[in-house]
Write a structure and sequence with these properties.
With about 180 residues, the chain is α+β, with helices and mostly antiparallel strands. It has 4 helices and 5 strands. The N and C termini lie far apart (about 50 Å).
Length: about 180
């Protein structure tokens, strides 16, 4: 897990990796988009680098799945974001095999009946900034009203980042823009 399995960086990839993953993706080897061997070479390099950053084998399973290619999914904008998982008060909980059953006032209960107590929830919901991004998740406010019912209604926002009635829901794009599911 020391990154030695990263291999030698493909031409230009090492320098661009240090400048961020988006730079690596867009400015390294154009062949990675067309040639499977080049794509696998860069993917192997990135997987090794990410494993070296994570250090913990359990985190590597969650964040660097075997066979994961670099680029087909959303590319993080920088290369140093994995360090957020290192502090002792941070726990990454994979839900692929242990789904979220419910949110409670104290945390999240998973299918195995474990209550993960927490202060902050970060949901990695994928990269669908339009059409269904927020309505595919059953987000409900106090009293049970689902966010998807707000669709087609007059949406009131706070600074364009929050939906009225959902005080702990922050979005990265204004909920009333035409690209989001809450638009009329």
């Amino acid at each position: 897990m020391d990154g030695s399995d990263a291999g030698a960086p493909p031409r230009g990839a090492g320098k661009n990796y240090e400048k961020g993953l988006l730079k690596l993706w867009l400015a390294s080897l154009a062949e990675m988009f067309f040639e499977e061997a080049v794509s696998e070479e860069i993917s192997k390099f990135v997987r090794g680098k990410r494993r070296a950053q994570l250090k913990d084998p359990r985190l590597c399973v969650l964040h660097v799945p075997p066979g994961y290619g670099f680029g087909p999914r959303r590319v993080p904008l920088e290369a140093g974001h994995l360090e957020v998982y290192h502090p002792p008060n941070v726990e990454a909980v994979g839900i692929a095999c242990n789904a979220i059953e419910c949110m409670t006032p104290d945390g999240i209960r998973t299918a195995d009946d474990t209550l993960h107590e927490l202060n902050i929830i970060t949901l990695a919901t994928g990269f669908d900034s339009g059409a269904r991004a927020l309505t595919r998740i059953d987000i409900r406010r106090r009293g049970g009203r689902p966010l998807r019912q707000a669709r087609g209604r007059d949406i009131r926002t706070t600074m364009g980042l929050q939906v009225h009635g959902y005080p702990n829901l922050f979005t990265t794009v204004a909920p009333s823009t035409h690209r989001l599911p809450c638009a009329t």
